[in-house]
Every structure is written in structure tokens, then in C-alpha cells.
Amino acid sequence: MAYGIGYTIANHPDFPKVKGPSNSIELGWSHKQNAFWSLLNGGAVFHLNATFQNFGNNAVLGKAFALTPAMSYPIVKKRQFSMQLHLGWGAAWISKKFDSFSNPTNIVIGTNLNASVSAKLEFVYRIKSIEPFLVFKLQHYSNGNAMSPNLGINMPMLQTGLRFMFEKEIKSYDLMRRNYKKSDSTFVKYEFPKPKIAFRPFFQLGLGLSANIQRGPFFPVYNLNAGAQWLYRPSKTLWAGIEYSFNSAVYEFYQNNGSISDPRKFNRYAIWFGHEWIFGRVGFFALGGLYLNRHVNQRSLFPTQTGINFYPRIPYFKPRHQFWIGVHIRAYLGLADYVMLQAGYRF
Fold this sequence. Notes:
Blueprint: E1 2-6, E2 22-31, H1 36-39, E3 45-54, E4 63-77, E5 81-94, E6 113-125, E7 130-142, E8 153-164, E9 176-178, E10 187-189, E11 199-210, E12 219-233, E13 236-247, H2 248-256, E14 267-279, E15 282-291, E16 303-310, E17 322-332, E18 335-346
Antiparallel strand pairs: 1-2, 1-8, 2-3, 3-4, 4-5, 5-6, 6-7, 7-8, 9-10, 11-12, 11-18, 12-13, 13-14, 14-15, 15-16, 16-17, 17-18
């Protein structure tokens, strides 16, 4: 259980007035197990958090209920004290959205259903079965620019709370895996093979959706990437790539208004670097890059992206000939551009 207080950041001159702090109440469930993905990440823990909060202006911005799965990654780990990094990616329902008649001053959120993305730095002190904790949190709500307006809601927060531990003692080994062939699912010693650290080329296709205008039709966004990956740790991968993308929603909007007829001015070219934290078959991914050309509706030189990748085969054991699919939010720095489904292949 946790209580948090923060402040909504006004990221636009016409942002609705923020009249006070943002308050949140969070109930969470955590599950730690002796699985290989947890051991390879220093004892990573899965969390599921339900959060209710306001934004400092209930009449215009409303309130949010979010359900956010997350992974925590230990940075410092002592007998009683620990410092952990949490990464969360889920969904939220926001009670107030833009409406040209009933809520015209809400230029922030155009849909009730939004993505909830969070990053936390947590400090924990354990007293027997109780863990008091203090958290510095960055929270973001956005529909990924699937529908306009979408400035997004961003806020830094300070949280404090208690975690109650209900544990079942399990005999542990330094390295282990579950023996699925046995009916009792016992744990057995297992020496993980050392992966061959090498650069592997990859190819990735993406298909996004964007409406560009309020209540407008959805148009596809095409995204193409190629580059190389480096599995520099069993659970961490560095990416580098080049990208081409084309947002047909922006193109059709300008075509409809007769502003620009040359489609080449809507092409986007970029170089980027990314990092992925891998927990078994799930990877938390983030990238930052640089656009190489000027294009229509460009809001920043720097593309950013966050998302989750899903692997049918565990990357640690199958580093080559690996396929994945992912759900990502693309942005101009911190301003969301579109939501995208990606599929990739590592050779």
C-alpha cells in the first residue's frame, strides 16, 4: 500500500490550470520467485499495481484509475536495505477527456483509455516481514497520439508506503531452473551456458495508428528498421539502428487541405540507440535517436520510444534466429506521436 503526492507538469502555454498537487493511492501485489529470469537480473520481482489519482484540476483533467504491471530491478542489495529500479507499462482510464462542447479547455487528453508508463527509484528497509519504502516516481499518461489532442499528462511524484511479505521458504541455488518434466515441479541445479557475446543483425517492421485530428479517421504509420544488437549481458541488450517511417495521417491531412502535394516531404529518416532489459520472454525497451531530415509536422530533432517486446523463445537460450513482437509508443522527445505494433527478427 502506498500514498503519493506530486505535481502535474504544464507542458503547453494553454495547458489547463493546475490548481493543486496530485494525490494517489496505490495497492500493489508483488511476486518473487526463484526463476531463471529473476536470478539473471539479480533477483528481479514482478509487480501489479492498481492506482487511483487526480491531476490537480478535477473539473477539466478528471481522475485516473491505472492498472500497471511492472518489473523491479535491484541496484543496491544489502541484508535489510535495498535500492530498486521499477519499470511499468500498463493501461489507465481517465474520467475527463477533451470535448468541443462539454470540456473544450482540456487540450491534454483526447480519449478515456490511455497508456500508463512509470519509472520508479525505490528505497526499501526491511523489518522482518514488513518493508517501509520511499519512492521517487515519474508518471506518464498518454494515448500515444492515436487521437488528438494528446499532450499527455506528466508528473514527478514522491511516494511512501508499506509492503507486507508473505513468504514460503524454498530451497535456493545460485543458478537453477524449474524441471517441468516432473509432476512436482521441483527445482534442480542447472549451470546456465555462457552465451556467445556477439553482434547480431536484425530487421524490424512496425505498423502504427494515428488519427491526427480530433474525431478523425485512423490512418496507418509505416515504420522500417535495420541494425545490430549486442547481448552484452544475459538479460541486457544494446541496440543500434537506422529507420525509415511515414505517417500517412499527417500526409492525408495536408493533402485534404491542399497544402503540400510532394509526399517525399513526409518521409522520416533517423538513427537511434536502444536498450532492453529482458525478463525471460518479456523485454522492456527504450530508445533515443536523431532525425536526419526535416519533415512536415516535425516537433523535435529527437525521436524516443518505449515499449514491451514478447519473445516466443527465451533470448538467453536462443540468441540467434530470434523472432519477437512488441507494443510501443513513439514520441518526439516527450510528446507522443503514435502507438505501434512491431515485429522483428534477429539473424
